[in-house]
Amino acid sequence: MARRRGVPVRRVVRTSHRYWSVANPVGLPRLTAVRWLAAGFVALAATSLPAGLLSAGQTSTAPQDDRRREVALKISDAGFEPARIDARLNDIVAITLTADDTPHGLSIDAYRIAKRVEPGKPLRFEFRADTTGTFRVYCSLTSSDGRVHDEHGELVVRR
Q1: What are the extents of the domains in the chain?
Q2: In the predicted model, is pLDDT for residue 63 greater than 80?
Q3: Backbone Cα Rg of the chain
Q4: 33 phi and psi, to 5 degrees?
Q5: Could you name the CATH architecture of 68-158?
Q6: Mean pLDDT of 149-157
Q7: What is the mean pLDDT of residues 129-142?
Q8: How would you write 52-105 as a 3-class SS string?
Q9: Is pLDDT at 100 greater than 50 in this prediction?
Q10: Rounded to the nearest 5°, which phi and psi values hold at 110?
Q11: Lowest-confidence region among 59-68, 115-124, 126-135
Q12: pTM above 0.70, yes or no
């Protein structure tokens, strides 16, 4: 710390090349801040367009994500359908879970997933398959008469 007449004085760092405002609280350089704001507005406008503005022949130009696995998983007293879920390492696994007859649960201990689904109310969730191996998938609920549900399957994650 510098001293002026025996009193400590803090030096002020000059930041004239920075642009600070409520829209730019980080203090990015002015051109960078303007570019980020413009990109944000373009992204907001693109995502908020109603789907009806595209004509019948047009499709969106969003690239297909090959690192995504969509799985429709049905649980009944007979078990899981399909009983095996295959994924590759670092895939995003999106599961749409439905119950046919009674409430069921889905648990995958290795991924700390525990979900409950009611009949007629599908549940959708996602997770990243970030660990390779074969993992047990099972129903974690018991029925009203105390019987443990015996539905089980497996999640296989490969490289």
Answers
A1: 9-49, 68-158
A2: no
A3: 27
A4: -60, -45
A5: Sandwich (2.60)
A6: 90
A7: 92
A8: HHCCCCCCCCCCCCCCEEEEEEEEECCEEECCEEEEECCEEEEEEEEECCCCEE
A9: yes
A10: -65, -25
A11: 59-68
A12: no
> Using CA atoms, how far apart are residues 3 and 1, in angstroms rounded to an integer?
7
3-state secondary structure of 31: helix
pLDDT band at 90 (very low <50, low <70, confident <90, very high): very high
CB 40 within 8 A of CB 48: no
The amino acid occupying position 155 is L
In three-state secondary structure terms, 119 is strand
* Structure-derived torsion over alpha carbons of residues 81, 136, 134, 159, reported in degrees to the nearest 10: 70
What CA–CA distance (Å, rounded) separates 31 from 47?
Answer: 24
Contact 71, 95 (CB under 8 A): yes
Model pLDDT, residue 56: 39
Least confident of 59-68, 70-79, 104-113, 128-137: 59-68
Contact 131, 110 (CB under 8 A): yes
The beta strands (E) that lie in 100-151 are given as 104-108, 113-117, 123-129, 133-138
DSSP 3-state of 1: coil
